[in-house]
Structures are given as C-alpha cells and as structure tokens.
Amino acid sequence: MTTGTTREDTGVDVDLRKLRYFVAVAEELHFGRAAERLHIAQPALSRQMRALEDDLGVLLFCRDRRGTALTAAGARLLEEAPRLLAACTAMVRAVTAAAADTPKFTIGFMPGITLTPAVRALTSRHPGLDVRLLRTGWQDQVEVLHDGRADVSIVRLPIDQHGLQVRRLFTEPRVVALPADHPLAAKSSLIVGDLAGEHLLQDPDAVPEWRDVADELRTGERAEVRPINSVEEKLELVAAGAGICVIPLSTAAFYTRHDVVTLPIEDIGVGHVCLAWSTTSSSPFITDFADVAHLLTPPAPG
C-alpha cells in the first residue's frame, strides 16, 4: 500500500505521512510540542515540513522569533487535510472489512440511547451479521463516520452535516443537572431565567437560551471551561459544585446518581436525535438499519 495520493491536475504526489505531521504542527503551532506528540525528533519533523512545502510549492508556516503561524495556504490545508486523512483511514477499514469472512456492521451511539430493539431487528434480517457497538461523545460522534470506525451513528444535533446523510429519529426534552444540595434542587421545574446566575459546564452555544440570559457572559466573568470528555466526568463536576449542565432526558435517565438532581426546564428547546452515515459509505446494511431505526425511542418524561 502506498502512502501517497496523486492529484492529476497538478502532478503533485501528496504524502499522507507528511500530511499527518503537518496537522500536528498546525494544531500545536509549535514544532517541539508537535514532535513530542508524534514521537519523532524535531529536526526530522522540520525536514518533513520543508519537504511538504517543496512538494506543494507553497509556504505553509511563518516562523520567526515570535513563534509559528499558518500562512493562508497553511490554513486552507488544515481545513482539507483532516478530511483527506479520515477518508483514507475509512478506505483501509472498508477494504479490510470486505476481506473478512463474516460481514461486520458497526453502530456508533451517544450516551443514553438504547440500541437493543433496533439491533435485534437488524440481526433477525441478517442472522450472520456481526453487529458491533461503538460509544461516542460530542467530540467524535461525526468523526467515527468519516474515518470509517462506524457504518452509521446515532447522533445528537447540532453536528456538521458535511458529507453525511442525516435522518431525524425523534426529539426529546432537555433537563438541567444540579448538585443535590443546590438551592434550586427542591423545585419541580425551572425556567431558563432561574439559571442565569449559574456557571455552565458546556459551550454556551450548545444552550442558546441560557447564553442569552447568562450573568457570567454579560459581565465577562465566565471562567474557562476545560474540555470534558464524557457524561460521567460532566456529572462528577456537577456533583462537586463546579457548575451545571443541560443534558438530554435519555442521558439523565441512564446516568442516575444520588448527589445530582435533574429538573425539567419549561422554556428550553428540545434535543434532536438523528441517524447519520457517510455519503461515501458502501455498506449494504445501512438501508436495513435505517428501516428499523424508528424502534429507537426516548424515555417518557416524568
């Protein structure tokens, strides 16, 4: 297998290894940190980046005493390179799967969503099918489709729908998670205005109703929120009194704990759950799974 892909319109062979190295440098904007991340020597990384610039005939980085920055060409390559790398990874996985004796079908799913009814319906249609489940999060629910780790994924909107087919499955209420000893925890329900003085452990754009009334955004006093990689981690922070979070009802029903209370919010929009798959996917089982995906339903409120 080669490590390059040819662009016939320019005659340039783009080395995928150099592209991976480029993405690391472009994301770190520091050759030393990128070299550590890639587990290679910094001089070797610098040589690879100069070679990539020579291959493309453009300058990708501006390097001076103030640091490293992307040129306009470098910024554009950073937009394109991850998609190309993911597509190549997906191709390798698809070819490997095609050579397997037993057909496989991998379903990605977000926390709180129960797949059992749909999986049973699919395997009843295809008794020999090896169905695999892949738990995803907000950060990778779409990425697993582009790089071929999953054939389909049950996703929560909003997502970047570029290169995807998306079919809406259901909507569900969203609730707020509070520490059990919070002054609001004894209420039966809340309105968004009740939460204006709270610290949200999420991107404010994920909860626009809160964003529009939040005291910490109005005063500019919002503390930085570090990346949170799982529901468990998010709820742990809530229980510790670090802030609040707004989560889908199905997630709240799945992750119950005595030190966290979840309450309905009367004037907040619902969450949308969808089935998504790559427009380039060739799996023959996607259509059948889409036919039975309606069996996935949210928990009843209350």
Number of helices: 11
| Helical content class | 25-40%
- How confident overall, as mean pLDDT? 88
> Reading side by side through the largest sheet, how are the strands ordered?
6-5-7-12-8
Shape: flat
Q: Work out the radius of gyration.
A: 23 Å
**What is the makeup of the main sheet?**
5 strands, mixed
Strand portion = 15-25%
Contiguous low-pLDDT stretches (5 residues minimum) are 1-8
Q: What pattern of helices and strands is seen along the backbone? A: EEHHHEEHEHEHEEEHHHEHEEH
- Compute the separation of the termini in Å: 55 Å
Indicate the structural class. Answer: alpha+beta
Number-wise, the strands total 12
Which tags fit this structure?
five-stranded mixed beta sheet, 36% helix, 12 strands, 302 residues, alpha+beta
Description:
By secondary structure, this protein is an alpha+beta fold. It is built from 11 helices and 12 strands. The strands form 4 sheets. Strands 6-5-7-12-8 form a 5-stranded mixed beta sheet. The chain has a 3-stranded antiparallel beta sheet with strand order 10-9-11. Strands 1-2 form a two-stranded antiparallel ribbon. Helix 5 links the parallel strand 5 and strand 6. Helix 1 crosses helix 2, helix 1 crosses helix 3 and helix 1 crosses helix 4. The longest helix has 28 residues. 27% of the residues are buried. The N terminus is likely disordered.
